[in-house]
## 1
Amino acid sequence: ARYAGVAALVVMAALVVIMFGAANASLAEAHRALKVEMAERERAEAALLQSQKMEAMGQLTGGVAHDFNNLLMVASSGMDLLERTEDPVRRERLKDGIRQAIERGASLTQQLLAFSRRSPLQPEVIDLPAQIEGMGVLLDRSLREDISAEVRMAPGLWPIEVDPAQLEVAMLNIALNARDAMPNGGKIVITAENVSDYRDARLAGDFVRLSIHDTGVGVPKENLARLFEPFFTTKGVGQGTGLGLSQVYGFTRASGGTVSIESEVGQGTTISLYIPRSRKIAPAAPPPSKAPVAASGRRKVLLVEDDNSVATLVGEMLHELGYGSTRADCAQAALEALDREGGFDLVFSDMVMPGEMNGIELAREIGRRRPGLPVLLTTGFSEAAAAATADGLRLLVKPYRIDRLAAELEATLAAR
């Protein structure tokens, strides 16, 4: 009987081992199947994402190409007409048109970069009422004569910390959408007020609510949820890229806030930006910068630019501002010019150029070879701009006007 009991125990143990082995085999097989399924899902998601990217690029290309072709048309035809007229009034009108086309192109580029979040934000503490007041002329130019604008700022608004340029772009995008929603005229009301202890699914705290209300046609409920989607637009073909409100959404989220929209067909639309309260104090407005008054050649600039057309125009701008300049087309040529000529007061260099060194590396090498020689960098690439800012270098973003160049040159020399 004893041996029979032992045998039974052995048999039971064997059965348990077999069962566990089968269970482990089943688990291993299930694990392999799960890994295969996850891999298939990842491939499907990658294919879907690529398809969405291609569709988005197709939608984007048409709108952007249309907008830029219009801007290039204004600039090229304006230049042709400038060469054919001596009337000073007409020449000024043509120059204004060309300048506006350039500014619109730069604004469109900023919208694209802000949407993709590849444009580095440069936040600073601002006085919101003063910022909105300073946009008065820009808003007036953007709206038609049959649309009035009213600003209502609550007293004691908290300071906020945002990128002022991107805030203006966001406000302008909302205003343009409001304008298009009022084909027969109407009214835009801009309000701002403090909101204590605001809460939603993602945020909580003190915020400043900046709202823009229009008396337009409103938005159907089925479109409300899509208004902030990139490339979504209710306008006709060629009348918009669908990036305006996407920039608003991207800017507000990147600033630590959120955005909401309320609309009723026939009654108008209200878009509200919730921007976190800043505990910092907004700085006093700096005095206006003075343009350089030095005579030609008094200050010598080493201009590092690989593009011949850009180098020629920037050289003319420097001459107009009273600077002498020597041009180098790459970092190595710039270092050779420093060793050969010397006597430079400032190096003004592009960031992206051919050769083994970029603008940041050139600035570092100049710092080692010529301590104290100021360097001002410039670029139109957002990634390069972010790198320069992180490195603590002075940067002038392309495109820029001559007054902006003058201010940055003077500031760079003064910082020395």
## 2
Amino acid sequence: MGGSELKVLVVDDEEFLRAILTDLLNGLGYDVIQASNGDEAVKIYQERKDEIGLVILDVVMPGKDGLEVLEELKKLNRDVKVVLTSGMIYEKKVEDVVATHRNVGFVQKPYNLIELQKVIESLLRQR
């Protein structure tokens, strides 16, 4: 289901993980925009929300964490599609967010390409 028509905003404070995820997504046919922190992600999304079809968002980041960024993105576009990611144990708080927010999924780090693709495709099918 990939394709360069869809831009994905990848938000992670770790440059190495952004690079890995960008390579994985490019391999699936997605065009990637990167942000290294929450403030940058919100700014980019605000400026380019009409062309960004999906956001992959690290939950644990210094400064503004992923859940705070999610809330800001939802204010800009209540239908934004977001994949939350974390290398930490899947927290109850994240589970609650996924259960109560439309168009939000979760993928555990380290990334499993099949799982990542499955969650992305599931979100992109939602209206």
